[in-house]
Protein backbone atom coordinates (compact mmCIF):
# COMPACT_ATOMS: atom_id res chain seq x y z
CA UNK A 1 0.00 0.00 0.00
CA UNK A 2 2.91 2.26 0.77
CA UNK A 3 4.33 1.55 -2.70
CA UNK A 4 1.02 2.62 -4.26
CA UNK A 5 1.77 6.13 -2.98
CA UNK A 6 5.52 6.14 -3.63
CA UNK A 7 5.19 8.75 -6.38
CA UNK A 8 3.77 11.24 -3.83
CA UNK A 9 6.69 11.02 -1.43
CA UNK A 10 10.04 10.17 -2.97
CA UNK A 11 12.19 10.93 0.09
CA UNK A 12 11.19 8.35 2.64
CA UNK A 13 8.66 5.62 3.35
CA UNK A 14 7.66 4.06 6.65
CA UNK A 15 5.09 1.64 7.95
CA UNK A 16 3.86 1.30 11.52
CA UNK A 17 2.05 -1.88 12.56
CA UNK A 18 0.46 -2.92 15.81
CA UNK A 19 -1.70 -6.05 15.66
CA UNK A 20 -4.50 -5.50 13.18
CA UNK A 21 -3.78 -1.75 12.81
CA UNK A 22 -1.25 -0.17 10.57
CA UNK A 23 -0.34 3.15 9.04
CA UNK A 24 1.80 3.66 5.94
CA UNK A 25 3.30 6.91 4.85
CA UNK A 26 5.43 8.34 2.05
CA UNK A 27 7.28 11.51 2.80
CA UNK A 28 8.27 14.54 0.77
CA UNK A 29 10.49 16.46 3.17
CA UNK A 30 9.64 20.14 3.45
CA UNK A 31 9.76 21.19 7.11
CA UNK A 32 12.47 19.65 9.33
CA UNK A 33 14.45 17.48 6.91
CA UNK A 34 15.77 15.18 9.64
CA UNK A 35 14.71 11.59 10.27
CA UNK A 36 13.18 12.71 13.60
CA UNK A 37 10.29 14.17 11.62
CA UNK A 38 9.52 10.90 9.79
CA UNK A 39 5.96 9.59 9.79
CA UNK A 40 3.99 7.73 11.08
CA UNK A 41 4.77 9.81 14.13
CA UNK A 42 3.84 9.08 17.74
CA UNK A 43 3.58 10.92 21.03
CA UNK A 44 6.00 10.39 23.94
CA UNK A 45 4.64 6.98 25.02
CA UNK A 46 3.67 5.64 21.58
CA UNK A 47 -0.07 5.60 22.34
CA UNK A 48 -1.08 8.00 19.61
CA UNK A 49 0.11 7.72 16.01
CA UNK A 50 -0.45 10.03 13.11
CA UNK A 51 0.07 10.20 9.38
CA UNK A 52 -0.42 13.53 7.78
CA UNK A 53 -0.32 15.03 4.31
CA UNK A 54 -0.17 18.79 4.06
CA UNK A 55 1.18 21.74 5.96
CA UNK A 56 0.14 23.47 9.19
CA UNK A 57 0.67 27.18 8.76
CA UNK A 58 0.26 28.17 12.41
CA UNK A 59 2.30 25.38 13.99
CA UNK A 60 4.79 27.71 15.69
CA UNK A 61 2.29 29.31 18.13
CA UNK A 62 0.60 25.93 18.72
CA UNK A 63 3.96 24.36 19.46
CA UNK A 64 4.82 27.05 21.97
CA UNK A 65 1.44 26.62 23.62
CA UNK A 66 1.93 22.84 23.88
CA UNK A 67 5.49 23.21 25.21
CA UNK A 68 4.05 25.45 27.92
CA UNK A 69 1.62 22.63 28.78
CA UNK A 70 4.59 20.31 29.29
CA UNK A 71 4.68 18.33 26.03
CA UNK A 72 8.10 17.13 24.84
CA UNK A 73 8.86 17.65 21.16
CA UNK A 74 11.37 15.39 19.38
CA UNK A 75 11.48 17.23 16.06
CA UNK A 76 10.90 20.65 14.59
CA UNK A 77 8.18 19.46 12.21
CA UNK A 78 4.60 20.67 11.97
CA UNK A 79 3.27 17.10 12.16
CA UNK A 80 4.30 16.65 15.77
CA UNK A 81 1.93 19.43 16.79
CA UNK A 82 -0.90 17.07 15.80
CA UNK A 83 -0.07 14.24 18.19
CA UNK A 84 0.54 16.50 21.16
CA UNK A 85 -2.36 18.75 20.19
CA UNK A 86 -4.66 15.73 20.11
CA UNK A 87 -3.50 14.71 23.56
CA UNK A 88 -4.13 18.19 24.90
CA UNK A 89 -7.33 19.20 23.14
CA UNK A 90 -8.83 16.08 21.54
CA UNK A 91 -10.88 16.72 18.44
CA UNK A 92 -11.03 20.44 19.30
CA UNK A 93 -7.53 20.52 17.86
CA UNK A 94 -8.94 20.89 14.35
CA UNK A 95 -10.61 24.16 15.14
CA UNK A 96 -7.22 25.58 16.08
CA UNK A 97 -5.37 24.56 12.94
CA UNK A 98 -4.75 26.73 9.95
CA UNK A 99 -3.73 24.08 7.51
CA UNK A 100 -4.05 22.36 4.19
CA UNK A 101 -4.23 18.88 5.50
CA UNK A 102 -6.05 15.65 5.48
CA UNK A 103 -4.78 13.71 8.43
CA UNK A 104 -5.45 10.33 9.83
CA UNK A 105 -4.56 9.18 13.22
CA UNK A 106 -4.80 5.93 15.05
CA UNK A 107 -4.79 5.87 18.79
CA UNK A 108 -3.36 2.58 19.96
CA UNK A 109 -4.73 2.33 23.48
CA UNK A 110 -8.52 2.49 23.07
CA UNK A 111 -8.22 1.17 19.51
CA UNK A 112 -9.97 3.95 17.80
CA UNK A 113 -9.02 6.00 14.86
CA UNK A 114 -10.00 9.27 13.34
CA UNK A 115 -9.61 11.19 10.10
CA UNK A 116 -9.92 14.86 9.37
CA UNK A 117 -9.82 16.91 6.23
CA UNK A 118 -8.96 20.60 5.86
CA UNK A 119 -11.65 23.29 5.82
CA UNK A 120 -11.76 23.93 2.09
CA UNK A 121 -10.95 20.42 0.96
CA UNK A 122 -7.62 21.26 -0.62
CA UNK A 123 -6.29 17.74 -0.25
CA UNK A 124 -8.35 14.62 -0.93
CA UNK A 125 -9.03 11.89 1.62
CA UNK A 126 -10.70 8.60 0.69
CA UNK A 127 -11.92 5.89 3.02
CA UNK A 128 -13.77 2.59 3.08
CA UNK A 129 -15.70 1.30 6.06
CA UNK A 130 -17.40 -2.05 6.46
CA UNK A 131 -18.02 -4.50 9.26
CA UNK A 132 -14.45 -5.82 9.29
CA UNK A 133 -12.18 -2.98 8.38
CA UNK A 134 -11.49 0.69 8.08
CA UNK A 135 -9.16 1.67 5.26
CA UNK A 136 -8.16 5.16 4.21
CA UNK A 137 -5.74 6.87 1.89
CA UNK A 138 -4.94 10.15 0.21
CA UNK A 139 -5.42 8.65 -3.25
CA UNK A 140 -7.67 6.03 -4.85
CA UNK A 141 -4.80 3.71 -5.89
CA UNK A 142 -4.41 2.82 -2.20
CA UNK A 143 -7.53 0.70 -2.52
CA UNK A 144 -5.92 -1.46 -5.21
CA UNK A 145 -3.99 -3.11 -2.41
CA UNK A 146 -6.98 -4.50 -0.52
CA UNK A 147 -9.61 -7.08 -1.42
CA UNK A 148 -12.66 -5.15 -2.53
CA UNK A 149 -15.82 -5.93 -4.42
CA UNK A 150 -18.87 -3.92 -5.33
CA UNK A 151 -21.19 -5.88 -3.02
CA UNK B 1 -2.39 -4.94 -6.83
CA UNK B 2 -4.36 -7.29 -4.60
CA UNK B 3 -5.69 -10.38 -6.48
CA UNK B 4 -9.16 -9.83 -4.98
CA UNK B 5 -9.36 -6.20 -5.97
CA UNK B 6 -12.55 -6.10 -8.08
CA UNK B 7 -13.54 -2.49 -8.45
CA UNK B 8 -17.06 -1.47 -9.39
CA UNK B 9 -17.70 1.97 -10.83
CA UNK B 10 -20.34 3.86 -8.88
CA UNK B 11 -23.27 4.74 -11.14
CA UNK B 12 -24.19 7.91 -9.31
CA UNK B 13 -20.54 9.05 -9.33
CA UNK B 14 -20.30 8.33 -13.04
CA UNK B 15 -23.43 10.39 -13.62
CA UNK B 16 -21.84 13.27 -11.68
CA UNK B 17 -18.65 12.91 -13.64
CA UNK B 18 -20.46 13.12 -16.98
CA UNK B 19 -22.57 16.05 -15.80
CA UNK B 20 -19.96 18.15 -13.96
CA UNK B 21 -16.63 16.69 -15.05
CA UNK B 22 -16.00 15.97 -11.37
CA UNK B 23 -17.12 13.61 -8.63
CA UNK B 24 -18.26 15.46 -5.53
CA UNK B 25 -17.74 14.44 -1.89
CA UNK B 26 -18.77 12.15 -0.31
CA UNK B 27 -18.82 10.05 -3.49
CA UNK B 28 -15.84 8.59 -5.24
CA UNK B 29 -15.72 6.88 -8.60
CA UNK B 30 -15.35 3.51 -6.87
CA UNK B 31 -18.41 1.95 -5.33
CA UNK B 32 -18.06 1.68 -1.52
CA UNK B 33 -15.06 3.98 -1.35
CA UNK B 34 -16.10 7.35 0.07
CA UNK B 35 -14.42 10.70 0.28
CA UNK B 36 -14.37 12.68 3.52
CA UNK B 37 -16.03 16.08 2.90
CA UNK B 38 -13.98 19.22 3.52
CA UNK B 39 -13.97 20.50 7.11
CA UNK B 40 -15.15 17.15 8.48
CA UNK B 41 -13.63 14.69 10.86
CA UNK B 42 -14.50 11.03 11.22
CA UNK B 43 -14.10 8.83 14.26
CA UNK B 44 -13.91 5.08 13.88
CA UNK B 45 -14.15 2.51 16.65
CA UNK B 46 -14.87 -1.21 16.40
CA UNK B 47 -18.58 -0.63 16.83
CA UNK B 48 -19.17 2.83 15.47
CA UNK B 49 -18.27 5.19 12.67
CA UNK B 50 -19.29 8.80 12.90
CA UNK B 51 -18.61 11.83 10.71
CA UNK B 52 -19.02 15.37 11.95
CA UNK B 53 -18.26 18.82 10.69
CA UNK B 54 -15.71 20.97 12.53
CA UNK B 55 -15.65 23.95 10.20
CA UNK B 56 -17.68 25.46 7.41
CA UNK B 57 -17.17 28.31 4.98
CA UNK B 58 -19.55 31.30 5.35
CA UNK B 59 -21.18 30.76 1.98
CA UNK B 60 -24.84 30.80 2.97
CA UNK B 61 -27.06 33.88 3.36
CA UNK B 62 -27.40 32.99 7.01
CA UNK B 63 -23.70 33.72 7.56
CA UNK B 64 -23.38 36.86 5.44
CA UNK B 65 -24.22 40.31 6.72
CA UNK B 66 -25.93 41.59 3.60
CA UNK B 67 -27.15 44.82 5.22
CA UNK B 68 -23.57 46.03 5.67
CA UNK B 69 -22.93 46.02 1.94
CA UNK B 70 -26.33 47.32 0.89
CA UNK B 71 -25.80 50.79 2.32
CA UNK B 72 -22.75 51.35 0.15
CA UNK B 73 -24.27 50.16 -3.13
CA UNK B 74 -25.09 52.70 -5.87
CA UNK B 75 -28.75 53.78 -6.22
CA UNK B 76 -29.49 51.59 -9.18
CA UNK B 77 -29.19 48.51 -7.01
CA UNK B 78 -31.68 49.77 -4.41
CA UNK B 79 -35.31 48.69 -4.20
CA UNK B 80 -37.72 51.16 -5.88
CA UNK B 81 -39.12 52.22 -2.49
CA UNK B 82 -35.65 53.21 -1.28
CA UNK B 83 -34.73 55.34 -4.29
CA UNK B 84 -34.26 59.00 -3.57
CA UNK B 85 -35.80 60.57 -6.65
CA UNK B 86 -37.59 59.63 -9.82
CA UNK B 87 -34.77 61.25 -11.83
CA UNK B 88 -32.33 58.71 -10.52
CA UNK B 89 -34.90 55.98 -11.16
CA UNK B 90 -35.35 57.10 -14.78
CA UNK B 91 -31.60 57.31 -15.27
CA UNK B 92 -31.29 53.87 -13.82
CA UNK B 93 -33.96 52.51 -16.14
CA UNK B 94 -32.17 54.06 -19.11
CA UNK B 95 -28.92 52.55 -17.91
CA UNK B 96 -30.58 49.20 -17.48
CA UNK B 97 -32.11 49.24 -20.97
CA UNK B 98 -28.86 50.10 -22.67
Please characterize this protein's 3D structure.
The complex is a heterodimer of chains A (151) and B (98). Chain A is an alpha+beta fold and 151 residues long. Chain A has 3 helices and 10 strands, in the order βββββαααβββββ. Chain A has a single domain (3-145), classed as Aminohydrolase, N-terminal nucleophile (Ntn) domain (Glutamine Phosphoribosylpyrophosphate, subunit 1, domain 1, 4-Layer Sandwich), CATH 3.60.20. Chain A has a 4-stranded antiparallel beta sheet with strand order 3-4-7-8, covered by helices on one side. In chain A, strands 1-2 form a two-stranded antiparallel sheet. Chain A has a two-stranded antiparallel ribbon with strand order 5-6. In chain A, strand 9 and strand 10 (134-137) form a beta hairpin. In chain A, helix 1 (59-68) crosses helix 2. The longest helix of chain A has 10 residues, at 59-68. Chain B has a domain at 11-53. The mean pLDDT of chain B is 73. The A-B interface holds A 91, 94-95, 102, 110-122, 124-130, 134, 140, 143-150 and B 1-8, 25, 28-46, 49, 54-57. Strand 9 of chain A pairs antiparallel with strand 1 of chain B.
**Helix-residue proportion of chain A:** 10-25%
Shape of chain B: flat
Largest sheet of chain A: 4 strands, antiparallel
Strand content of chain B: 5-15%
Number of separate domains of chain A = 1
CATH superfamily heading of chain A: Aminohydrolase, N-terminal nucleophile (Ntn) domain
* Global geometry of chain A: globular
- Spatial strand order of the main sheet of chain B: 2-3
Structural class of chain A: alpha+beta
Give the terminus-to-terminus CA distance of chain A.
Answer: 22 Å
Mean pLDDT of chain B: 73
Give a count of the beta strands of chain A, DSSP E runs of length 2 or more: 10
Largest interface: A-B, 34 and 33 residues
Overall helicity of chain B: 25-40%
The Rg value of chain B, from CA coordinates, equals 25 Å
CATH topology of chain A: Glutamine Phosphoribosylpyrophosphate, subunit 1, domain 1
Quickly give the structural class of chain B: alpha+beta
Order of helices and strands of chain B: HEEEHH
| CATH hierarchy, class of chain A | Alpha Beta
What count of helical segments of chain B does DSSP give?
3
Work out the helix count of chain A.
3
